[in-house]
Structure formats: C-alpha cells, structure tokens
C-alpha cells in the first residue's frame, strides 16, 4: 500500500468498524423494542418511534458513507477492509427490514384492526416505491444487482403499511363509537402441526351493521374466545383513525360499560 494513503485507509477502516457496531446495536434495539411491544406494550409510542426511525436512520447513514459502504456489498476490497465492509453492510441491511416486521408484530400485539384493508394498498405501494428509490440513491451498486435489490425491497414491504396503521391508531384522538353486540355464533379453524390437528384461529359472529360498519365476524384470542358464550354481549369500539382509516377494537362488554 502507498504509505501516503495509509492514514486514509486507517480512517476508512475505523469508520467501517464504527458503522458495523452501530448497525449491530440498531438490530439489537429493534429486537428489544419488538419484545417490549409484545410483553409490555406500554408506552407503545416509544417502541413505535424506535422501530419507525431505524430504517430512516439507516438510509441516512448509508447516504453519508455511500462511497464505501452499502448493503451486503463491499466496494473496494483491500487488506482487512472487506470483512468490516461486509459486516457493516449485513447489519445495515438488517436495520432496514427487521423494524418492518417488528412493527407488524407490534400492530398485532396492540390488536389494531382496520375495517377496510383495501385502504392500505395505496400507502403500501407508494411507501415501497419511495423506499426502493431511496435505496438506489444511497446504494447505487444495487442498480447492477437486481436480484438483491428485489429481495431487500420485498423485505421492506411490511414497513409502509405497519407505519400507516400504527400512526392511524396511536395518534387517533377521535371519539369512539361504542357498540354492545351479542355474540351470534362461534367458530374455530383447524390445521395440522407435525401431523396432528391443531386450532389455528378463533372467531365470533356478530352483527354490527346498525353501527355503520359491516363487520360480520371478528378474530379473537383463545382466552377471549373461551370466556364468552353465544348470546353474551361484547364491546365493539370503532374509531375514525388519524389518517382516515377506520379501525376497531374488541373488548369485554364490561370494559365499555364502566
């Protein structure tokens, strides 16, 4: 190596080491925020902000250092550089798509249900296109590796709808429409796990048309399913949504009568 380039190479390697460590910490933070959302989802805003910010922060880091780091690739292999570049790229790639799955899990943990799921089609397509464009800007080499580009773009598809659903629910301060409805029927779906029949879903039949929403059947947890019988009331709480996506929660009737 040209001795005149030695200081630059050393600085380059140190930057890659720092990025690698930061990205690894980001992945651990994403898993921690997801676990927090599942086990104890309050304050859920904190978990949401962490998971929503990580991919954006990752894109910003890659933009700042796009001359020598990108996802899963190393630009100029020399000396020990490839290992650190690959490490940084691997963890940065994880920081892009792992938070999207974490946000999906957080949505399920909070039991947020959108009445009309077709309303998520446009935000999902639009958000994915914007993210794909951002990736091509911060990692130009992806234009020559369409297979990897397609894979990481598909892995990020979970991010836009999850962010939309959570913003719509967590920042919704509208007054809910409360419906106390009787359970008209119960149904369990079954599947097979390791060649043994197992229950895969629990559903309750209701009639919510009088409340301005056509929700004939709702999926509930096994605990809630077991605690309620046909003819008993449940609470359907419908809200307008911060971005116009009507959503609802299922609760025991006693929770809405307090």
What order do the helices and strands come in, and which of them pair?
Layout: H1 6-39, H2 44-64, H3 81-109, E1 113-114, H4 121-138, H5 146-155, H6 159-170, E2 177-182, E3 185-193, E4 196-205, E5 217-219, H7 222-227, E6 233-239, E7 247-252, H8 253-257
Antiparallel strand pairs: 1-7, 2-6, 3-4, 4-5, 6-7
Helix pairs in contact: 1-2, 1-3, 2-3, 2-4, 2-6, 3-6, 4-6
List keywords for this structure.
258 residues; alpha+beta; four-stranded antiparallel β-sheet; disordered N terminus
Write a structural description.
The chain is of the alpha+beta class and 258 residues long. Helices cover 52% and strands 17% of the residues. It contains eight helices and seven strands, in the order αααβαααββββαββα. The strands form two sheets. It has a four-stranded antiparallel sheet with strand order 1-7-6-2. A three-stranded antiparallel sheet has the order 3-4-5, with no helix packed on it. It is elongated and about 70 Å long. It starts with 5 loop residues before the first helix and ends with a helix.
